[in-house]
Amino acid sequence: MRQTIEQARLLLPLPDLHIGGAQEVVRTMAKHLVSDECTPVVCSVFGGGPLLNDLRAQGTPVEVFYLPRHRFLAFPWYAADMVRLWRTLGQVIVKHNINVIQTNIMGSQDFLVLGLARALGVPVVILTFQNERFLPFSHKAYLKNALHRLAYRLGRRWASDYVAVSAEVKQAMIRTLGLPEKDITIVCNAVDVERYRRPIDREQVLGALGLDSQAKLLITVGTLKTQKGYRYLIEAAPQVVLRHPNVYFLFVGDGELRAELEAQARDRDVSDRIRFLGSRRDVAELLAASDVFVLPSLWEGLSVALLEAMAAAKPVVATAVSGTSQVMVHNETGLLIPPGDTAALAQAIDEMLSDPDRANNMGQAARRHVETHWSMEKQAAEYRALYRHLLQRKVTGCRG
After folding, report:
1. Is the pLDDT of residue 2 over 50?
2. What angle do CA 126, 222, 299 make, to 5 degrees?
3. Looking at the structure, do residues 109 and 199 belong to the same domain, yes or no?
4. What is the total count of domains within the chain?
5. Sheet holding 100-104, edge to edge
6. Is 3 part of a structural domain of the chain?
7. CA gap 30, 11 in Å, rounded
8. Is 383 exposed, middle or buried (0-12, 13-18, 19+ CB in 10 A)?
C-alpha cells in the first residue's frame, strides 16, 4: 500500500529581518512556497527589521525573538546565547509542528539546529550555502574554520541535504568541506519578477535625490564589505565622470566599510558624484530610474541584487565571478569583466553609457533571461519537489 507523504511544515530561521540578500530570498521563498504541499513559517531569532512588515503583509507566519548575540570568543556568554536559542527554536518547532527546517546564513547556529532537530525528531533538515566563500579567510580564523569543517562533515549524518545556490558554490562545498557530490543539491536563487515591472516617475525619483532629469545613474546594491569590490568602482569613478560629466553613482546598502569608502570618494575627488544611500525600501524604484547596474564583486554565491536588476530590465556591468557568470550572458545581458580590474570596469561602464540603444537592448534581454531561468515560481517548484523527496525518503527509509 502506498504511504501518503505529509505536507511540508517548513521553518525558515534567520538571524534577523534586516534588508539583505538572504533575507530577501527567504521572504520571496515564503511567499511562493505556500501550497497544499507546503506551509512556511519564518523565525527571526536575534531581532526584527524592515522585512517584518513585508512578511506579515504577504500572510507569512513570523516568529520574532530578541535574543542576545555574543561572539564565540566571549564563550561563557556565547554558550548562554546558544542555550536560549535552543529553547526558543524548540518552542517554535513544537508550536508549528515543524517537519522540515531549512537554514540560511545561520553560520555556527547551523550545528545547533542539527542537534535540536535530532532531539525533537524533525525528520528533514536542509543547510543552505549562499556564498562561495562561506568560511572566513583570515588567518586569525584558522581554528574556527577547522572546527566548522569538522562540524559540517560530522553533520552529514544528521543533515538531510545541503543546498548550494549555484554550481560554483557546490564545487566550493566539495572542495572546502569534503562533502560528497551526492549530498549537495543545487537550487539557484531567484527573483520575484513581477515586483520589478511596476512603472515609476523617473523625474520624481531623481528629484528626491537632488538630481535633474538629465542625470545618468549607475546603481549598485549590496552590503558595504570587501567581498563586493566597491573600492574598485570608486577607483574607476573619475575616469567615468571625465567621459560622462552628468553621471552619478548610487550605492544602496550599508556596512562596515562605509566610512572607508566615503573617505576614498573624497580622496578621489568624486564625493559629489556618489550617493551613499544606506539600506532602502525603494530598491525597485531606484533600479527602475537607473541606467546601468554595476556589480564589481570579488566573489559571490548568486547575487540576488543582480537578479533584481535584470528583472528590472537594467543592463549590467559585473565581474566574472561565481554565480554571476552562471546568470549573465556576456555581450547579451550585459558585460562581464575580470574582478579587481579598475580599467576594465571603467571601460565597460563607458561602453554602456556611450551606446544607450545597445544598453537598452541588453536590459530587455536580461529581463527575458531572468523570466525564463530565474523566476521564483521555478525555484519554489524545485524546493517543493526537494521537500517531497526528502520526506518520502524518511518514510521509506531509503537514502537514495
Report:
1. no
2. 65
3. no
4. 2
5. 62-64, 38-44, 8-14, 100-104, 124-129, 161-164, 184-186
6. no
7. 10
8. buried
Q: Which residues contact 380 (CB under 8 A, 6 or more apart)?
A: 29, 32, 33
> Length of the chain in residues, anyone?
400
| Domain assignment present for 2 | no
CATH code for position 154? 3.40.50.2000
pLDDT at 135 exceeding the cut of 70: no
**How many angstroms separate the CA atoms of 297 and 320, rounded?**
9
Is residue 262 located within the same domain as residue 314? yes
What per-residue confidence (pLDDT) applies to 187? Answer: 95
State the residue range of the domain holding 92: 8-190+375-396
Q: What is the pLDDT of residues 69-99, one digit of tens each?
A: 877 677 788 889 889 999 999 999 999 999 9
Q: 22 and 151 share a domain? A: yes
226 lies in the same domain as 339: yes
pTM (two decimals):
0.87
